[in-house]
Structures
1.
Amino acid sequence: MRYRMIERCRDTFPIRLMCRCLHVSTSGYYDWRDRPLSQRAQDDRRLLESIRKIHDGSDGVMGSPRVWKELRYEGEACGLNRVARLMREQELHGIPQRKRWRKKVCGLRPKNVHNHLQRDFTASEPNSRWVTDITYVRTQESWLYLCVVVDLYSGIVVGWSMSHCQDRQLVLQAVLMALWQREAKTPVILHSDRGCQFTSDEYQRFLQGHNLICSMSAVGSCADNAAAESFFGLLKRERIYRRQYRTRAQARTDIFDYIERFHNPRKRRQLEMRQKQDLGLTKPSGEMG
């Protein structure tokens, strides 16, 4: 620690003076400075370059847990605590989540529509459970409304739409995009809150005509649609709150970039890692005789 302090201040104070004040020998300092880096220090330096690349590539929004996951995807054998230590030493930080709770007015749930998820936001196969919701983005021109459809199996945004109006067409366009990407025609549970766009007759008829099972949250319970709210929290924390949009077109372009060039590719990498791990667990360890 003393030698590092001398190294940091060598351009400001004489080295002999600092060694005398810190009660260390001058020869000991030069021996420490000329000593080659240990293998551990060399690995830390190499790992730090990868950490900086990932952190800069995320526009500075990723913290140590997600940086560590990206390193694992790239084949790095390192622990989470090591990544956290290196980022802390270099003052590399992610963006923490702000907790804000609020209640919003809910519509009446249509008859024969229930909460099929019951806050279980897991799925055993792709395109079996979707969640959808609407959020708004402030621009200097006016509000921009965004509707997304998220696949609970992978976390990928399979459908989205943006408009200056918060109407039924906004929701229908997002669901229609998700349907275009669905390969199989098996039934899918589509969960939402009780907004008027989701309780409308047109929306309900659209779901019935496309083999989608409607699921809705309870009254005044945002936790029932936490998966969609979680995505909006990431989007706003990592991108929207760090920008000032002059026009709705500028906001559209930036949100498209976040979903298709940052969020979805990251979720696909995580899904690929999970599938490789599952394959490794199910693969036999040796040939059967």
2.
Amino acid sequence: MNDLYVAIINQLDNGIILLDEQMNIQLWNKWLAKYTGKSEEEVKGLPITMVVPRFNKKVYAYMFEKALSDGQKSFCSAAMHRYFVDSHCADMKQPHQNILIQHLQVAHQSYLMIELYDVANHYKRIQNLNKSLQSSIDFSKSLEQFVYYDSLTGLPNRKFVLDRLEHLIKEEDKVFSLFFIDLNGFKAVNDQYGHLQGDLLLQMFAERCKQVVQKQEVVARLSGDEFLLLVENRTSIEAVEQYVAKINKLLQEPFIIEEQQITISASIGYACFPQDGVTAKQLLNVADDQMYVQKRAKKKGF
């Protein structure tokens, strides 16, 4: 791995573990060395389950496998797990640790990256990071991000899609399809697991969408558990059915949150320009109406 990358990772105020495809440790940053009392030289090349026995559990093995095979991120919070790595450092308190497990590709090599965050210092680090970023980030880019992108998922927001629709409608001989996606059962997830876990589910769904969106396609978060997919130059029945199937396929794999496998579905409506409407409002209304027809049909078991 590039020496610059390693130097940056070693400056981070959280733990970073890199595993190879055989689940052997290839990087153990300085935060972990200080916190655990185990140097990188001691643990490098060892199986992660030998160094961190807690990862012997099947649920973590499943998360590791899905991250490597499908690029699926997994998150486990301190609210449920308290901590993952034991402290052997007298001057460091036992933190409440979140972990994020994700796939990483470096120089044609696949790695599994495990990030450990100390929740107690999380907001302080964010404040310090914001102060440093304010002096280096261009104001106009920050403003554009705020206006046109959803802060939770990072997807384009309602204003972005409406502006794009208005632009496409004015183009000569332009055709496109607009899909209205509503996640079924999302309220039940919030009620059973809490709003933090509900937010994580939305973020994970957004990540899956980002991985499959191609050129001339835009997926956006409208509000709550409602999303839009805008597809240019495709309006045939066959194309529409393909995209409906594509969206449903994104939801076939369960979402893993707090060691729980959560499965949800979607109700999907669509509208095509120009046959279903000639304004953004008309197209949204048609797609929305179709979505609710499908949602009611699913509730009745059709």
3.
Amino acid sequence: MSVDTDHHWVEPGHVYLVGTPIGNLEDFSPRAQAVLRQVDRILCEDTRETEILCRTFDIHRPLVSFHAHNAPRRLQQVATWIAQGESLALVSDRGMPAISDPGQELMVWLYDNHIPFSVIPGPSAQVMAFAASGFPHPYVFWGFIPPNGKARRERLQEIQACPYASVIYEAPHHMDKTLNDLLELLGRDRLVVLGREMTKHFEEFWKGTLGELVSQNRTWKGEMVLVVGPKASASEQEPEWDKLIDDVENLVAAGHTIKEATQQIASQYHISRRELYNRAQKSRNN
């Protein structure tokens, strides 16, 4: 289904949060492009980044910087533009604005002042990485971990205490430090998924333990998302092997072969059939 580029998608006095590609430009939706062509101004995390995107897609609208350092001043201007009936768009450099990117201040202001807005969805690195992880729902998105000090220690402690999967953004120059901090707090065996350069030519998804990832001694490049697996539940802790072996022996005594017995018990308790079989055989030999 194609989007009618001649359709008027924007309304006066309305703000549009527009998702932009996180790497592959083919992910820029026709609707998002049409909205950016039709609004009066585009609020940007970095006008230089957005200028490249707009030039690529032949979009010619005034670009205005909007970030944490100038938000209070910009909101005064936004109020004036909205009062004059202008329509505005908000974009970040990549992905969805206001998610670990500038925009939260604007959203609070829109709600407080009852200004109408719409969200034009686009790619999200955190959603992509979690979808690729195979970990169970729910998950917690932490964004970028503070680089140092008390704020960093507190955030790492929150991640340690979190029972769910954790999605973390990290820059290449902080990756080794973050991995080693997580290794110390969570242990070598915690499962993680690394999403790197997602939607780009050298896209990579890697899954293994924290210990395995740290031992690779990589030179980190590109944009990365780390998905830390959830804490092991009580059912995922080390099985009570003695009891399980007794259950196997009871089935064998009832007429099952040891292969049939280990298969049945392994399926019942969701454990490795091979490991249970090996342990049962070892117990018999002893």
